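User: What would this chain look like folded?
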Amino acid sequence: MSFQPINTALKIAGGLFAFAIVLTFIKNLVRKISSRPRKEKATTSGLSSNQTSGTVKWFNYKKGFGFIEQENGEDVFVHHRSIIGTGRKSLREGQKVLMDIVDGDKGLQAENVSPL
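Assistant: Here's the prediction, encoded as structure tokens.
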């Protein structure tokens, strides 16, 4: 007497059970990520009416971040992802920019940065 069909059925059932566990894990992970509050991202759709100007204090191309001095003298953090454009984006010391100022996790930061 052969138990081959039973063994095959058990292997398939075990595989389906493992697949269901992985699928449930992914579903819960997606739900958790999508429930987090989203930060505003840089857009290329144009400049907002709330933008302010500033001057690049310094920017480290290798690390992808730096600081911009606002007209009022206060510094704001800038990350390369916040610079409008494509590819690897950078700013030069002393360069004039337009930007939105947002309150980030660690203080003020520049978004939608547009070099002048």
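The first strand starts at residue 52 and ends at 60. If you want, I can go into more detail on any region.
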